[in-house]
Amino acid sequence: MAGQKIVQMLPTITFGDGVSNDALMMDRILREMGYKTGIYAQNIGSRLPVGVVQKVEKLPKLSREDVVLYHFSTGTELNRSVANLPCRKVMVYHNITPKRFLLPYNADAAVLCDSGRKDLAATKDMFELCIADSDYNRQELLELGYSCRTEVLPIVIPFEDYEKEPDRHTLEKYKDDKTNLLFVGRIAPNKCQEDVIGTFYYYHTYINPESRLFLVGSEEGMERYRKRLEEYAEKLGIKDSVVFTGKIKFAEILAYYRLADAFVCMSEHEGFCIPLLEAMKMEVPVVAYDAAAVGETMGDVGIRLKEKDLQVAAEWVHQLCSNEKLREKVITDQKKRLDFFAAQRTEQQFRQIVESLAV
Amino acid sequence: MDEKCVTEMNTENKSEINVEEIMEQIRTNIRERGYDKIPLSFEDVPISQPLIAGEVEYDAMVLRQEVQYLNQNWNNNWNVPVSGGGLRAKFKKLIRKLTRFIIAPIVAFQNEYNASNVRAIQQLAAYAKMMDEYKLRIEELEQQVKELKQGK
Question: Which of A88, A186, A231, A286 is the most buried (most CB within 10 A)?
Answer without folding.
Answer: A286
